[in-house]
Amino acid sequence: MKFIFGICCLLLGWCVSGFAQSQTVTYDFKKTPLSDVLREFHSQTEVDFAYDNFALAKILITAKGEQVSLDKALTAILARSGYRQQWINSTCIIAKQQEEIPDPKVSYHDILETIVVSGTVYDNETRETLPFAGIINNSSKQAFTANANGDFNISFSMSHPEDSIVFTSVGYESKTILLHHLLRQKPNAKIGLESKRLYLPAVLITAGSNEVFKTDEDNTNLVFNPNELVSSNGLGESDVYRSAQILPGISSNQENSGGLFIRGSSS
Questions:
Q1: Integer Cα distance of 110 and 234 in angstroms
Q2: Non-local CB neighbours of 63 within 8 Å, separated by 6+ positions
Q3: Does residue 33 have a cis peptide bond before it, meaning omega lies within 30 degrees of 0?
Q4: 263 falls in which pLDDT band (50, 70, 90)?
Q5: Average pLDDT over residues 16-26
Q6: Which of 227-260 are b and which e, b meaning 16 or more Cβ less than 10 Å from the residue's Cβ?
Q7: Which of 247, 244, 238, 239 is nearest to 259 (CA)?
């Protein structure tokens, strides 16, 4: 089963790669927002892109190419933008590159009984603090919570400086930092979290109408289905009498009569 699954994944990768290579684009951008660049590529190839329009509109692109494969063009354009492309079937997702934590230059061998760390967790874009952010030691599974101002002052018992600490908050991407990196930021570490965004293809919504009342070509007869009258009167049962009252030329405003008064005829 594992062998068959591996072959299926390999074939899927070839299909996606072949699809991307078969699409070519010609472009000449001069300080063009990255979001507009993707719209131009979509118009040339009809490939669906999923991305954060607000974030990509701030990135300006200057590049030029003629009959370049779409995948190579995206690789060149996104090289210094901090974003990367990822293909899911025929949809191209533009996602932010994961921050790589460098290997520690100092090797630690002793387990320390207590390590005290303090700092603040905040939104990396708005710089607002994140109240009650979660803090977990991956090795010892010790968990803590920041206060209402996003500040924390915690101590890890029986921890190793090379342990990894995970910072989480609802609606934000989790961030993992080595413990000894936090110790270098004493007395107060600054932890910025990125907002969690779902990258989905664009959806076009168009307005429509439900014609309960229909007229013939001469506009002399008005036909309606009583079963659909509930949509014209709101909630409740269908009321033919009440529905007729709202039609043009019909009224029932006579106090001494409960009948309908149709323009041009008797009640």
A1: 73
A2: 27, 29, 73, 76, 77
A3: no
A4: confident
A5: 66
A6: eebeebeeeeeeeeeebeeeeeeeeeeeeeeeee
A7: 244
Structure-token pair, residue 169: 């908050």
Q: Which amino acid is at 14?
A: W
Residue with tokens 């003629």: 66
Instruction: List, in sequence order, the alpha helices (H) in the chain.
Output: 2-22, 34-45, 53-56, 70-77, 179-184, 230-233, 240-245
pLDDT digits (tens, 9 = 90+) for 186-235: 778 899 999 887 777 778 888 766 666 677 777 677 777 666 655 555 55
For residues 168 and 192, the answer to whether their CB atoms sit within 8 Å is: no
Q: Are 64 and 76 in contact (CB under 8 A)?
A: no
Residue with tokens 């299909």: 15
CB 123 within 8 A of CB 195: yes
Q: CA-to-CA distance for 197 and 158, rounded, in angstroms?
A: 36
Backbone angles phi, psi at 92, to 5 degrees: -105, 120
pTM over 0.90: no
How does residue 131 score in pLDDT terms, banded at 50, 70 and 90? very high
Distance CA 73, CA 37 (A): 11
Hey, is 156 helix, strand or coil? strand
